[in-house]
Amino acid sequence: MKRILTVQDISCVGKCSLTVALPIISAMGVETAVLPTAVLSTHTQFSGFTFRDLTDDMLPAAEHWQKEKISFDAIYTGYLGSERQIDIVSDIFGKFKGENTTIIVDPAMADNGALYKGFKSGFPAAMFKLCGKADIILPNLTEAAFMLGVPYPGDRYDESYIRNMLVELTSSGARTAVLTGVSFAENELGVMAYDSVAGKYFSYFSEKLPASFHGTGDIFASAFSGALCGGNSVEESLKIAVDYTVECIRVTIGSGSDCWYGVEFEKCIPFLIRRIGK
Ligand code: PXL
Questions:
Q1: Quick one: angle between helices 216-229 and 234-254, nearest 10?
Q2: Is the pLDDT of residue 119 over 80?
């Protein structure tokens, strides 16, 4: 069985980070080891959340795994709370990166043109450096703009702008950059990717639904990581992740959910299992 390590926080309520990565990747038939970076009562879009920092526990846990000769087929990182955590994660990549270990970095730190609460202005540059150690990075347009130090384009961009941005993102050292939340037509939304070794672009679009929800970036990244670690190609994994994320949004809209902070990804796990053909 393939084994992935995912490094992100536990937001106890909030349908993001580890509370979505663990069920989604496990359901895809991939053993999911976790390294929690912090425990929050909710994610940071709520006000008044509690926060227990676990930075000091990260390296000792990794060192124990090394002693136990535990290895990972993939490492997937999401929301990291500080530059110190980024440095530790970089160290962990060095410890566990084998010839066949795929490193996936989702630089979860911003959306809709703004950094999430609590991040200092130097954080995106540190995250961009971490992206350089990844095989595949999964920023949205806001995160990409912050990491590249360019203005957030909103919806004023065309395909050549996105192609350029993807090439610039791979200048970090990451082999493949994927931009999420890309749209070139009113009724479509999807991803565009660039593999800098093959020199090839790839895009995949689905329906743009009339609502957006918090946490869908983490759901996309989790489904992508599970699909890739489970043996699918990057292209097929992107298709699976887009289809699953769109299905989650469709079901959530259809159920009339009043849960503003997340989608009903749980109801769509059977769809995901069928989609990956397991
Ligand atoms: O979904 C990204 C995310 C993860 N973890 C925490 C967050 C957020 C987004 O706001 O606050 C703690």
A1: 140
A2: yes
Q: What is the pTM of this model?
A: 0.98
For the chain, what's the residue count?
A: 278
CA distance 62 to 137: 22
* Cα–Cα distance measured from residue 228 to residue 243, given in angstroms and rounded to the nearest whole number: 15
Q: Work out the number of other CB atoms within 10 angstroms of the CB of residue 21.
A: 26
Residue 81 CA: nearest ligand 1 atom is: 12
Q: Cα of 224 to ligand 1 centre, how many Å?
A: 18
In order of 30, 41, 63, 81, 261, the CA distances from 115 in angstroms are: 31, 20, 32, 12, 17
Could you tell me the two tokens for 259? 């849960």
Cα–Cα dist 170/110, whole Å: 19
Pocket around ligand 1 at a 6 A CB cut-off: 9, 11, 16-17, 40, 43-45, 79, 108, 116, 215, 217-218
Mutate to test the pocket of ligand 1, among 116, 127, 143 (most ligand atoms within 8 A of CB): 116
Q: Give the DSSP letter of residue 116.
A: P
Q: Whose CA is nearest to atom 8 of ligand 1?
A: 43
Q: Which of 128, 143, 135, 205 is nearest to 176 (CA)?
A: 135
For residue 153, the number of C-alpha atoms closer than 13 Å in the C-beta half-sphere is 18
pLDDT tens profile 159-192: 999 999 999 999 999 999 999 999 999 999 999 9
Burial status of residue 37 (CB atoms within 10 A of its CB: 0-12, 13-18, 19 or more): buried
- The CATH classification number of 3-276 equals 3.40.1190.20
Ligand 1 centroid, distance to 277 Cα (angstroms): 30
